[in-house]
Design a protein that fits this description.
By secondary structure, the chain is α/β, with parallel strands linked by helices. Helix content is 35%, strand content 26%. It is built from eleven helices and 13 strands. A hairpin with a 2-residue loop joins strand 12 and strand 13. Helix 3 packs across helix 4, helix 3 packs parallel to helix 5 and helix 4 crosses helix 5.
């Protein structure tokens, strides 16, 4: 039995950007992305704004229908564009959920919190009667640090942190296996962020959850993730265990991202050198880049010359 809960192979998501026929243009938001997530682990997905992180998450859940690629969930192929396989997602909506980035826009302002959390319970017919439905809703709210009094209130009556807790309770209400956490703390006050991150960890332990944790804050991702994938312009350029990535970053874009992480020690922060990423250093005109496992568990993207350089770099550090 495989430990892989989610397997993504050659995922592509292109959006039309004008033109007709042969002149039709596309934005390649996600371009040939492959990775897997093991049961019970957290895979962090990091990169700058507009790099394709959110689109990757939404495409996996088929909130956007992918342009290409194959997605396997718990041993079942739920999408294979090349072989024209597209299964009905309704049964998988219960198993795969999403916590959205904006806690203000992702909740219906006309619905009470109880109905927001209970909607998925109704859709998937998970409660035998009204009492069971009510008990499940209250249980979910309590799991995220809210209480029964909150069930009859509307989203506008809550703070940003409380609204995000409602969004998490909604995702948990169907007892999912896998949750895409799409920058779930970026819209929250710094004082609340740590509480929400700790809550994600506690819920994972209690419910056996698996996360794809999308963020641009590397400090948070390092804290919560087992492995980290770095995405740039729609393509994953490096992936490894969290501490390995911080100790031995290889791709120049990863080094640039890590150099921008603030250090709490003022002396170190003052003397720190920022690494500016220059994409023109990659010459792929003569040597096609590859996605290679450079050492066990550490993958990086580059052409043969770059890969040889990464191997030499790791050898010096060993």
């Amino acid at each position: 039995m495989s430990d892989k809960l989610l397997q993504v192979e050659h995922l592509k998501q292109y959006f039309p950007a004008g033109g007709m026929g042969k002149n039709r243009k596309f934005v390649k938001a996600v371009d040939d992305v492959s990775f897997f997530v093991n049961k019970g682990e957290t895979l962090g997905l990091v990169g700058e704004s507009g790099c394709g992180k959110t689109t990757t998450g939404r495409s996996i859940l088929r909130l956007y229908e992918p342009t290409g690629g194959k997605i396997t969930f718990d041993g079942n192929v739920i999408l294979d564009v090349e072989n024209k396989v597209k299964v009905d997602m309704l049964p998988y909506r219960q198993k795969m959920q999403m916590v959205f980035q904006d806690p203000y826009a992702s909740l219906d302002p006309r619905m009470t919190v109880g109905d927001i959390v209970g909607e998925a319970i109704d859709i998937h017919k998970l409660a035998a009667n009204k009492k069971e439905r009510h008990d499940t809703i209250i249980s979910m709210l309590e799991k995220v640090g809210l209480n029964s009094e909150h069930a009859n209130r509307y989203p506008h009556e809550f703070s940003g942190g409380q609204r995000q807790r409602v969004g998490i309770a909604r995702a948990l209400a169907v007892n999912p296996q896998f949750i895409v956490c799409d920058e779930p703390i970026s819209a929250l006050d710094v004082s609340i962020q740590a509480q929400v991150v700790n809550m994600f960890e506690e819920l994972q332990e209690q419910m056996g959850l698996t996360y794809l944790f999308i963020a641009h804050d590397l400090s948070v991702v390092r804290f919560i993730s087992d492995r980290i994938a770095v995405i740039h312009k729609g393509r994953i350029v490096e992936l490894s265990e969290a501490e390995e990535l911080f100790r031995h970053p290889l791709h120049p874009y990863t080094k640039s991202l890590l150099s921008a992480v603030p250090n709490p020690d003022p002396a170190i922060e003052r003397n720190k050198q920022l690494v500016v990423y220059d994409p023109s250093i990659h010459d792929y005109s003569t040597d096609k880049p590859q996605w290679v496992e450079i050492i066990p568990g550490h993958f990086v993207y580059g052409n043969e010359k770059e890969l040889d350089g990464y191997r030499e770099e790791l050898a010096k550090k060993a």
